[in-house]
Specification:
This protein is an alpha+beta fold. It has three helices and five strands; from the N terminus they run ββααββαβ. The relative contact order is 0.22.
């Protein structure tokens, strides 16, 4: 699947395309729904937010180094060569305008 995301580069919005599988698409949509109330209350746009002594963005260093690799292994998320996909938190950052189409 190809996902089109809006992101800001050098102060200008651009369209950015990445390839994902159905599982990643569903996870992003689930995170979007799960964090909807927190994002509305806090006016944060990120998906990786938590409510712990207030609403805040999850620490991406801990997320990237510990949580995402375990997530990839658990759900067996692989690239087109069969390697574990190097999923990073920034791939969820621009979630607001996800449009999926089969490639």
């Amino acid at each position: 699947m190809e996902v089109t995301l809006s992101k800001i580069e050098k102060g200008e919005p651009i369209t950015h395309k990445v390839f994902i599988n159905e599982l990643v698409k569903n996870v992003v949509l689930e995170l979007e729904e799960y964090t909807k109330d927190l994002r509305e209350e806090s006016r944060l746009k990120e998906l990786f937010i938590i409510k712990n002594h207030g609403i805040r963005v999850l620490n991406t260093e801990k997320c990237t180094s510990k949580r995402l690799p375990n997530f990839n292994e658990r759900w067996d998320i692989r690239d087109n060569k069969g390697n574990l996909y190097p999923l990073k938190s920034h791939q969820f950052r621009a979630k607001k305008s996800i449009r999926c189409s089969k490639v």
